[in-house]
Amino acid sequence: MSLNLLVVYGSVRIDRKGFGLARFLASTIRDRGHEATLIDPMEISLPLLDRMYKEHPKGEAPEVLERLAGQFRSADGVVIVSAEYNHSIPPALSNLLDHFLEEYFWKPSAIACYSAGPFGGVRAAMQLRAMLGELGMPSIPSLLPVPKIQDAFYENGLPKDEAYRKRADRFLGELEWYAEALRSARASGVPY
Prior knowledge:
alpha/beta, 5-stranded parallel sheet, about 40% helix
C-alpha cells in the first residue's frame, strides 16, 4: 500500500550541501511507489517561533502554518534530513519542528544526517532522536549517516557513490514497515 511520506530538510545556509541528499531520498521514496513531499525551510520562510500552530485561534494561523499542519497530519511518516552544526541540529530545523506537536503523534520518523567531516552528522542525530520522541514521532532504529557530504551527492540528487542506493533502500524499507504498522494501529484508535 502506498504511503504518504514527508522529507523535511533542515538547513537554510546559502551554500548548503545536503539538499542533494534530500532530493535523492524524495526521489527514491517515489521510485518505491510512495508519495513524497520535500519540505524546504528556505522555501517556506517560517518566522522564528513565537507561537505554536495550536496557539493561534482556529482559522487564524498564517497560511504557511496551516499548509504545513495539513501536510504533517496527512503524513504516514517523516524523513528528517539534518546537517550537524556545532555537534547539534540546525536552528532552522528546530524552528520548523517546534511549530507543531499533535500533528506528529503516532507517526514514525527516520533520520538521515550528514556532515562535512567523517562522523556523518551522528552527534546531531542523537539529539534529534530525543527531540523527535518528545514530539510524538519516534525515530526508527536505523540512521542514514552521510560523512563528507560534499563528496557524496550531486545537487540534483544523484549519488556519487552507488552504494547509497542500497543503504537508502534498507533505511526506507525499515521506515515503511514502521509507517504501515503505525498507520494500521492508528486506524484502530490511539491511547488518548
